[in-house]
Amino acid sequence: MAPHTADEPVAATTITSQDSDPATEPAIASRKVTVRTTLPVTPLPALAGRQPLETERLRLVPISQDDLAGYHAIRTRPEYMVHSSQGRVDRDLGETQAWLNRFLPPNDGSTYVFAIKEKVVGAGPVGAETGTATGEGAEKEDDMDRAIGMMGIVRMNSGTGWPEVGYGINTTHHGKGYATELLREVVRFWWTLPREEVVVEMKPRYVFGTAPFTEGVGVLREEDPELVEMPERIMAVADITNARSLRVMEKLGFVRFAEWDREDDPSERDAACWLLRPTG
Predict the structure, then answer these.
(1) Domain N-acetyltransferase, which positions (predicted)?
(2) What span, in angstroms and rounded, lies between the C-alpha atoms of 97 and 100?
């Protein structure tokens, strides 16, 4: 993008971040920064018309109401939910349904989430996919069609101004490198969606980062302009005790830019925030 001057018109969609900072923040940190960037055209493509993605070992299928039972089984596992923002298992099927509704119509216009499913492997060479299965093979195919997790853009405006990617994989499938494999594909796909120029009002920390996490992000100074042009980002938030997720972020080139210390609210988990921008 070319530099913008104050007397040039800004012909772009304007979005306001919903985040707010404590009144005690210094003025330089609490002021708004206007960012001109690009984001996918919204509303996002309707869920009904979305196509599945594949990686070497897994399928990413548009999330569906049919996945409810599978997600309830996952979200009632304490070892899975311990690192979630909720921090506890779902109380009942209704709570899992409420979570799933966040990604189904009419909310698909601002989310783009996939169910993670394994590929069906037959008795032939390793990696060969079966056709129609019967008997024990059919049971295996049913197992393979059960969601083992989710991944995608869980909200377009998370309060930071940037789309937020989220994911979770059943703990029975940890240690296989699935998260890295899948997130790489989701990020690749995300950058292929049609874009539009937008103007977003953000808190400075979501543009410049917060000390000491400013490397590769930027440093806010008193003389910085009120309008900044920058390539778009994807944001991710991870529990700071979740070493697996932190390693995934690092492997894929996400830059750590902030931490949230939530000692004042024990119901909220401390978190590390990461940003990724497109390459090339």
Answers:
(1) 57-255
(2) 5
